[in-house]
Specification:
With 128 residues, this protein is mainly alpha-helical. The protein is built from seven helices and no strands. α2 runs antiparallel to α3 and α5 (68-76) crosses α7. The longest helix is centred in the last third of the chain and has 27 residues, at 101-127.
C-alpha cells in the first residue's frame, strides 16, 4: 500500500515533467509518421525542450538514481565534455567538406566511445 502511495506521489509531483516528455515523444512519433523532415523535428524538439525545461527535468530524474545518478549528471554538465563533443562535430564538418565522409563515420564512433569512456571513468573514479 505504501509503495502505490509513493508511486502516486511521484507521478503527482512530476506531472508537468511527464506530460512534457509525453508531448515530445508524441511529436517525434507523429513527425516520423507523417514523414516530416528530421531536421525540423529536431529543431522543434530542442526549442520546446529548452523552453519547457524538459532537459533539466530529465537531468533531475537521472540524478535521482542513488549514488551513480548525481555523478552522471555532473559529468554530462562538465564543460570539457561539451568542448570535446563540439570539437568532434566541427572536425566532422571539415572532413565531410573535404570528401572524407566514410572516415567521418569511424571517427564519430571513436569519439562517442571516448566520451562514454570518459563519463564511465569519471563516475568510477568518484566511486573509488
Amino acid at each position: 500500500m505504501i509503495f502505490t502511495r509513493n508511486i502516486y506521489f511521484f507521478l503527482y509531483r512530476n506531472r508537468r515533467f511527464i506530460i512534457t516528455w509525453l508531448i515530445i515523444t508524441a511529436a517525434i512519433v507523429l513527425g516520423l509518421y507523417f514523414k516530416i523532415n528530421k531536421q525540423i523535428i529536431t529543431v522543434t524538439v530542442v526549442i520546446f525542450g529548452i523552453v519547457s525545461n524538459a532537459f533539466a527535468g530529465l537531468a533531475g530524474l537521472i540524478a535521482m538514481i542513488p549514488v551513480v545518478g548525481p555523478l552522471i549528471v555532473k559529468v554530462l554538465s562538465l564543460p570539457i565534455f561539451w568542448l570535446l563533443n563540439a570539437g568532434g562535430y566541427y572536425i566532422s564538418v571539415i572532413a565531410i567538406k573535404r570528401g572524407y565522409s566514410r572516415d567521418v563515420i569511424n571517427y564519430r564512433i571513436a569519439t562517442i566511445i571516448f566520451l562514454v569512456g570518459f563519463a564511465v571513468g569519471f563516475v568510477l573514479a568518484k566511486l573509488v
